[in-house]
Amino acid sequence: MVLIEGGTFLMGSDEFYPDERPVHERAVESFHIDRHAVTNEEFAAFVDDTGYVTVAERELDPADFPGANPADLVPGSMVFTPTARPVDLEDWRNWWRWQPGAHWRRPFGARSSIDERMRHPVVHVAFEDATAYAAWAGKRLPTEAEHEYAARGGLSGARFAWGDDMQPGGRVLANSWLGRFPYRNEGVGDAAPVGSYPPNGYGLYDMTGNTWEWTSDYWTPRHLRLSDRPVDPGRRQNLLATASAQEGFSTPRRVLKGGSHLCSPEYCLRFRPAARSAQAEDTGMSHIGFRCARDA
């Protein structure tokens, strides 16, 4: 882990997506954070030691899916599938599919394997899975502010983890989508082994790009100005939970940070420290992983 000295920083961005607003000053206490995302090798050690079964591997209860064909209620997860041609970018169902048998050991379905992917970030982990691993490791998930503060690597207000230019000098500094989304990718096209790209100013790898990462915070449609509120952690989470409650969502949603290898400038320019995404706690996907933090 890397010790990140506490301080204040400008959190958020007024330049890109509405949920990143407003830019505001946020204080963060010193904390430790993993140098890279939790890998398949590390997650396997946790499962071998505890016998833990991830959400994607568990049998589904028909009572939770009224009207569904019981034959369709099999364990699985969401897997990205590139299209053959341009599609409507307003409909994510064009490139995401429910894949029976997909989970962290079988990232693309029942016939896939992680045998050659032990240094890749573990994916298909739900929020519960990530917090269970963190507790086993004597750690916790980072808050959204901690993740963004660490991702900035000491750069104040920069668009990217390395500065304001997306590809300075033509260099690709994060694993993102290069080409036309979602049908032609000239980049890696998949998650890369951790540490494949240069670290940021704090020596942290893949804080942006590669895989989205879970944080402990509830998602809100805009930043709350919490700097002038009590810092009691329980009250803070209650405020966030209240603000994140939205009609039409029965499952709580948490903040993902960092973007992933699927982020494309023409669709999802979110491989940036300020970027954020809402994710239902019970849903893992083929581009979502996590890293851990710990109090200093």
Automatic annotation (TrEMBL):
Highest taxon listed in the record's lineage: Bacteria
PANTHER family tied to this protein: FORMYLGLYCINE-GENERATING ENZYME, SULFATASE MODIFYING FACTOR 1, 2
Protein name, as recorded: Formylglycine-generating enzyme family protein
Signal peptide boundaries: none
Ranges for domain Sulfatase-modifying factor enzyme-like: 1-294
